[in-house]
From TrEMBL:
Signal peptide: 1-20
Lipid bilayer topology: Single-pass type I membrane protein
Protein name, entry field: Sodium channel, voltage-gated, type IV, beta b
GO molecular function annotation: sodium channel regulator activity; transmembrane transporter binding
Any single GO CC term annotated in Swiss-Prot or TrEMBL for this entry: voltage-gated sodium channel complex
Species this chain originates from: Cyprinus carpio
Lineage of origin: Eukaryota, Metazoa, Chordata, Craniata, Vertebrata
Keyword Transport included in the entry's annotation: no
Localization (cell): Membrane
């Protein structure tokens, strides 16, 4: 009955005891790495009922067969595993039981390392239920061409916009200039036709208009 209540209310806080153990490879479970670099394959576990002798392992799906990379047993919460078995070169365990962290490092990545990695966990408290999360590694030669084309697209869009803006400003200024010239010509015509008296009349006229209105 108590566990029913826990399972009824805890989903709202994101941790239901139906799935007591949860493995996670993060919000972005894939990575693109340049060959020769060293990458972190992240994995954490969470369990709201606590762990006892949690068995975990990392596997790599190579040509359809699962190759074990590392495994060990974590005695209980916040206790480091006695010994982490490493089954493949260039793999290093960098996890920490304090952070529920069972991540591994993969050194000097080769193109053959590209593929799907599985972080697997089994908590005997849950009668042999298996839990896992996957992480995909892409290995590339250099920075991708797609990124360059995207940059070019953005750059040309911004450039095009600026060019358009400049053209618009030029046309606007030119139009204003032409309009000003036309206006100037019209003023000249008025001045020449009505003479100097016209400006004096205009000034006194503009002073007296508010009084009249
Ligand atoms: C990555 O692979 C390319 C092409 O095979 C190679 O030329 C380059 O030296 C490699 N880089 C590293 C750091 O291994
Ligand atoms: C997987 O395939 C690659 C290339 O075809 C090969 O070099 C490698 O030895 C294979 N690995 C296994 C475990 O069969
Ligand atoms: C990774 O490559 C560097 C340089 O080639 C080498 O010194 C280092 O031992 C390699 N690390 C592993 C774990 O293979
Ligand atoms: C797990 O540990 C590694 C190595 O210390 C660290 O780089 C990584 O950020 C940790 N991951 C989490 C989710 O704490
Ligand atoms: C859990 O995993 C183990 C080892 O990989 C496997 O032998 C077992 O059949 C799995 N159990 C279930 C219920 O999937």
């Amino acid at each position: 009955m108590f566990s029913f209540f826990i399972c009824f209310f805890l989903p709202f806080s994101g941790m239901c005891c139906v799935h007591a153990l949860e493995m996670s490879t993060g919000k972005i479970p894939f990575l693109e790495a340049v060959n020769g670099s060293t990458v972190l394959l992240p994995c954490t576990y969470a369990s709201c009922i606590g762990i006892t002798n949690l068995y975990f392992k990392w596997e790599f799906n190579e040509n359809g067969t699962m190759q074990k990379l590392a495994d060990s047993v974590i005695p209980t919460d916040h206790v480091e595993p006695n010994k982490v078995n490493i089954y493949r070169e260039r793999v290093e365990y960098v996890g920490s039981s304090k952070g529920n962290n069972i991540s591994i490092l993969l050194w000097n990545v080769t193109f053959g390392d590209a593929g799907v990695y599985t972080c697997f966990g089994k908590n005997p408290k849950e009668k042999g239920k298996n839990h896992s999360a996957i992480f995909t590694l892409y290995v590339v030669d250099e920075l991708r061409v797609v990124d360059n084309t995207l940059t070019i697209i953005i750059a040309s869009c911004v450039g095009g916009f600026i060019a358009l803006l400049m053209a618009f400003m030029l046309i606007k200024n030119f139009t204003l200039f032409v309009l000003a010239k036309i206006e100037e010509k019209n003023k000249e015509c008025l001045v020449t036709s009505s003479g100097i008296d016209n400006t004096e009349n205009g000034l006194s006229g503009s002073k007296s208009t508010p009084k009249k209105a």
